[in-house]
Amino acid sequence: MMRRALLLLCLSASVIAHGQGPTATAVLDTTVIRLGEQVKLDLEVVYRVDQGSPGVVIWPSLEDTLTKQVEVVWDGGVDTALVDAAKDPYLFAQRRHLVVTAWDSGFWAIPPFRFVVAADTIETAPLLLEVRTLPVDTAQAYRDIKDIYDVPFSWRHWLRENWPYLAGGVAMLALLLFIVWRVRKYRNRAVIAAPEAPPVPLHQRVIEALRAVEQQRLWQQGEVKAHHSAVTDLLRGYIEERYQVPALERTTDELVQALKLSAMGAAHREQITNLLRLADLVKFAKLSPAPLENEQMIPTAIRLVQETTEAMAAQPVPDAPRRDPIESLIWCALAIGVVATVLFLFLPRFELARPELRWLLLILPLLAAWYVWRRRAQRPRITLSTAHVFAHLRTGLLTHLRHVPFAASLLGLGLLLMALARPQLRDDWQDVETEGIDIVIAVDISASMLARDFKPDRLEASKLVAMRFIDERPNDRIGLVVYEGEAFTQCPLTTDHNVLKDLFKEARSGLIQGGTAVGMGLATAVNRLRDSDARSKVVILLTDGVNNAGTVHPLDAAQIALEMGVRVYTIGVGTRGKALSPVAIYPNGQYKYDMVDVEIDDAMLEKVAGTTGGKYFRATNERALADIYREIDKLEKTRIKVTEHSRRHEEYFPLVLAGGCLLFFAFVLDRNILRATP
Fold it and tell me: How large a percentage of the chain has pLDDT more than 70?
């Protein structure tokens, strides 16, 4: 009875243990897709982690293709989590989300995914994916690919593209018309003003004042001092207003010195000096002049005023500063500068259909030079009896803008000449077809690769040069196999070279069993290329020793490569003679180095390369290794077919519009606002 109960207990325990074993599932979110559509594939492994179980899950190696027809578009990586921490804290699940697609129609089987959990090997159920095509009417005849469609000219399309320029031109035209209308209206406005009396000339006012003093008969009444003071005050005021010399506040001697710098002649200056000195003697020295001197005082002053007035009228008015040619030159230079700015900053962004017509812009400096010369040689003059009244007149703003019409015409003409060159925008694109090469790099990572005859050692130098080689082959699928006593795939064939280089950096010695299994490394690399459809399949085999491990001989692997159409390039890495190499391992894990003979089976490597149509290279330093990879890069070329397309768009319309508006603007200014009267 006791034995039966113990047997039932063992059976129940085995059932429970079996129910808690690891499980693996693979699920597609849909089993029917069309060509090129993507579908999500979820992989999950559920397992227990107890004290006696390490909980290590080995996933299958997933390449960029699950089968020949099903491709992996995206791999989300492995994520580990508890299934239900509250119920069972030892039950874990590892999940991996993939996105796959297919480009061939049919029913495609996805084989089981095999996992190793601790000592158990489990598989998922196989999956079936149906890929359907789009419906095609096979009754119709095949047609060739159509050429690029040339859109016919349409006013509606043209207006839709150029309406901002048209609106701007219309707005500018309306603004100019409004300005012209306002100016004309202002000019034609009748202004009724009271007639102003013409100003009395200076000499006439002074002479009338002198005659008024004469009629007062001051000196006859005994007021000699008042008579001389009145006459000299009038003469001083006349001098101050006529010659712009302060005379009322100065003494006679100071005034005489100031008159020497004025336009008054010497004879007139002597007469005025005598009159002033006589008046000073009467006023300050109480001199009593003779009656004749008193009588001749006013006639002499009147004659002096008349003669100096006539002398000033006979003198030519000095020319105003010749600013007109300078201003015309500045405006012309400004217009040409704007044209040059457009020519050198705006036009280089476009491609010119008639670039030779740019030489027509040389007309602009010639026109500017002619205009400046004409303004300098033909300045308008008006002959008047006296021009002193115009000497100090101020010029208005419109006077300084009188050259704007010609400058605007010059700028508009320059823009129209640039439009003749027909600036165009070029829209280029390419259809690129690449036929890449599948390359697998097989690298020896045995302890001897840590020898220091390369800097820092053979392995790191080989990795650095190989990654440069990868960067120079952007269109090729490249994979990585590493080997010591055994071989394994570090990275399957992929075009994601960033991932490949990251995995390359992680390759190090001591990952697997020691030794140098050259044959195993080559066989694993060739196996990676078994399903490749590439035009050219290449293996680059790098080692620094002789084949001393593994179950496959290198020559046998070379024969397999030959049958599969794989070309093998072999590289022997290491200096000749002795090299500082690891010979033992200290208890702390560090290597002990000593000088060791470098042994590379050159004959075997050369025979492997020759069997497959490749080539053997010997690299004794870093530069030689880089040169070897460059030579392999030249030997294995990727075919690239490029079809170029080009379309041009005319961009001269803004220049024509701006040039036409400037010419119209110049015409309106010249004929209305800035119109000159000959």
Answer: 81
Do 571 and 540 contact (CB within 8 A), yes or no? Answer: yes
Query: Whole-angstrom Cα distance, residue 83 to residue 72?
Result: 27
- Rounded distance between C-alpha atoms, residue 600 and residue 548, angstroms: 12
Does residue 433 contact residue 501 with C-beta atoms inside 8 Å?
no
Question: Residue 312 corresponds to which amino acid?
Answer: M
Contact 600, 544 (CB under 8 A): yes
Pairing of strands 477-483, 487-494: antiparallel
Min mean pLDDT across 42-46, 433-437, 457-461, 515-519 is at: 433-437
Distance of alpha carbon 220 from alpha carbon 476, whole angstroms: 129
CB 480, CB 443: distance < 8 Å: yes
> 531: closest CA among 598, 440, 467?
440
Interatomic CA distance for residues 409 and 666, integer angstroms: 6
**Cα 353–chain centre separation:** 25
Q: Which two tokens stand for residue 363?
A: 């007309």
Q: Which of these, 208, 226, 200, 218, lies nearest to 282 by C-alpha position?
A: 226
Q: Does residue 320 have a pLDDT over 70?
A: no
The residue among 459 and 648 whose pLDDT is bigger is 459
Q: Does residue 424 have a pLDDT over 50?
A: yes
43, 26 Cβ separation under 8 angstroms? yes
| Cα 495 from Cα 478, distance rounded (Å) | 7
Q: What does the H/E/C string look like for 594-653?
A: EEEECCCCHHHHHHHHHHHCCCEEEECCHHHHHHHHHHHHHHCCCEEEEEEEEEEEECCH
Q: Distance of CA 252 to CAs 117, 248, 277, 296, 300, Å? A: 129, 10, 7, 20, 18
Give the model confidence (pLDDT) of 613-637 as tens digits.
888 888 888 888 788 888 887 766 6
In 60-147 the beta strands, taken as DSSP E runs, fall at: 70-84, 88-102, 106-110, 114-117, 120-123, 127-132
8 A C-beta contact, residue 283 and residue 225:
yes
**Rounded Cα distance, 207 and 574, in Å:** 123
Task: Tell me the mean pLDDT in the region 289-305.
Answer: 85
Whole-number pLDDT of residue 645: 66
Report how far residue 308's alpha carbon sits from residue 298's, in angstroms, rounded to the nearest whole number.
15
Inter-residue contact 250 to 232 (CB < 8 Å)? no
Phi, psi for residue 239 in degrees, rounded to 5: -60, -40
Q: Which single residue is written with the structure tokens 């392999």?
A: 632
Q: Is the sign of the CA dihedral 376, 378, 383, 389 positive or negative?
A: negative
Measured from the Cβ of residue 246, the count of other Cβ atoms closer than 10 Å reads 12
Burial of residue 540, with CB atoms counted within 10 A of its CB: 0-12 exposed, 13-18 middle, 19 or more buried: buried
Q: At what angle do helices 291-314 and 266-284 cross, to 10 degrees?
A: 150
List helix spans (H) across 244-319.
252-259, 266-284, 291-314
pLDDT at residue 9, rounded to an integer: 42
Calpha distance 366→359 (Å, rounded): 13
Distance CA 475, CA 477 (A): 7
- Segment of 24-28, 166-170, 286-290 carrying the highest mean pLDDT: 24-28
560 neighbors 441 (Cβ within 8 angstroms): no
Q: Greatest CA span in the chain, whole angstroms?
A: 182
Q: Please say if the pLDDT value at position 457 is more than 80.
A: yes
Contacts of 232 (CB under 8 A, 6+ apart): 275, 276, 279
Residue closest to 64 by CA, chosen among 497, 433, 463: 497
- Are 549 and 517 contacting, i.e. CB atoms less than 8 angstroms apart? yes
In sequence order, the 6+-apart residues with CB closer than 8 A to the CB of 346 are none
Question: Before 246, cis peptide (omega within 30)?
Answer: no
